[in-house]
Amino acid sequence: MKQILLIEDDPKICESLNNYFVSESLKLHTLSEGNGALETISQLKPDLILLDINLPGMSGFEILKGIKEKELKIPVIVITGFISTEAAIETMKQGAYEFVTKPFQLEKLARIVDKALQEKKGGGDSSNFGRDGKPEEEEDSIVGKSPEIVEIAKLIGQVAPTNAAVLIMGESGTGKELVARAIHRNSLRKDKPFLSVNCAALPEALLESELFGYEKGAFTGAYQRKLGKFDQGDKGTIFLDEIADMSLMTQSKVLRVLQEQEFERVGGNQSIKVDVRIIAATNKSLVNCIKEGNFRVDLFYRLKVVSVYLPPLRERKSDIPLLAEYFLKKYTRLIGKRVEGISNDGIKILLKYPWPGNVRELENNIHTAVVMSKGGMLMPDHFPIYSENKEKLDIDFDKIKKDYHKLLSQILEPIFPKILANSDGQIYDHLEEALERTVFDLSLKHCQGNQVKTSELLGVSRNTLRDRMKKFGLF
Fold first, then answer.
1. What is the DSSP letter of 179?
2. Which residue in 201, 249, 379, 463 is a FRET match for 399, CA 20 to 30 A apart?
């Protein structure tokens, strides 16, 4: 019989799980506080632990730490209403098997429990990586409570203590460098340098010198040896942003660092050993870059040991109020202005806007709004996006819902007289084609070019989708 230990102070959850896990092959034991938990674990030696974070007495973090120190190979599933990226990162770093947020579905939790027990039976166990300590508030912390961000935080907690290369993908402004810094901050290299290089910002020759340094006399003006980022970042982490813009020649040298942990300075012939972890990021499809002959396939697989996809802000709108509050506190502190908060109408505007510039654009708007406000609450007209997109943002999408005629009428009405004034007798044909092209184009972008998802989203066949992509040149 499998023994499960539930450490939870909410009697309703205890009762619910007791009723659900009634089985001849399972026995559920419960503790309502953290004090004495480690002694019970040592005596009972359960096959699995369900653990809350906020407990009377000893916290869940301390219990996880104690399990790690005692080297008890027991899968721990954290179930908590304390939803934060720091908590998810820390619990996974301390060796938790899974991080489940309340309220949860019993069926989903049961599947996780069953999987954990099966893996334990097969000899697997969750590795206990990381160092002591509790989550800390960071100036560059990852903010959000959406399921997508919680999953990313859990992945950071798992991968950070290893030396694995990581490839971070996502649109510009989604916060790829924040993820890279979070990985470094939670790694065993946290006390060593974290160096960031934007590969798109430098010409090829300068990028090569920036990364690898150069020897005295390597070229005109090289009057003395210069150490590159790989020299400076020894024992630390190098973050290569926009790596898709790196030349093939420089890619081959980075590949050598990944494979051999050595390089040569520009103008030098001595191999220099180095110990660095490489984290790369891109806002482009590296698969397409490989097809076009602009990116090495061997480097792609070396970088993609672990991959992280950061969804655009428009796909995780539940994070917008949290991010807005975070940036509001940041800039009221930096500017020294007292602002009480963001009005309800202001939040509605922020939620309506699609944020093509993602988190970076949101931060810029909050910064501007704090500067332009006269104290009190931030109102819609304090945000640059409102004055630039007033007609679109004033549309109440919740009321319109699927009345696309009303929606398009409100969008087109302000500019329709100008369209009519430029009539060539084919307005209907032009608008019909433009609408169809726009729908397919925006849907493909929304689905990151995934044709299966796009065809399902639009309710058209793959053949129809490919036909329109060919017709409108949407490849």
1. H
2. 379
User: What is the pLDDT, as a whole number, of residue 301?
Assistant: 95
Are 9 and 33 spatial neighbours (Cβ–Cβ below 8 Å)?
yes
Q: Which two tokens stand for residue 223?
A: 């009057």
* Unique residue bearing structure tokens 């307005």: 427
The stretches in the chain having pLDDT less than 50 are: 123-138
Looking from the CA of 176 toward its CB, the CA atoms found within 13 Å total 26
Q: What are phi and psi of 345, to 5 degrees?
A: -65, -35
The set of long-range contacts for 95-103, using a CB threshold of 8 Å and a minimum separation of 24, is 95/64, 95/67, 95/68, 95/126, 95/127, 95/128, 95/129, 95/130, 96/51, 96/64, 96/126, 96/157, 97/126, 98/154, 99/150, 99/153, 99/154, 101/150, 102/13
Count H helices, E strands: the chain? Answer: 23, 14
Read off the pTM. Answer: 0.67
* CATH number for the segment(s) 162-311: 3.40.50.300
CATH of domain 314-393: 1.10.8.60
- At 229-250, the pLDDT tens digits run 999 999 999 999 999 999 999 9
Fold for the domain defined by 2-121: Rossmann fold (3.40.50)
N residues, the chain: 475
Cis peptide bond upstream of 414, omega within 30: no
**Secondary structure of residue 240 in the 3-state scheme:** strand
- N- to C-terminal Cα distance for the chain? 56
102, two tokens: 């309340």
CATH architecture of 415-472: Orthogonal Bundle (1.10)
| Residue 386: per-residue pLDDT | 84
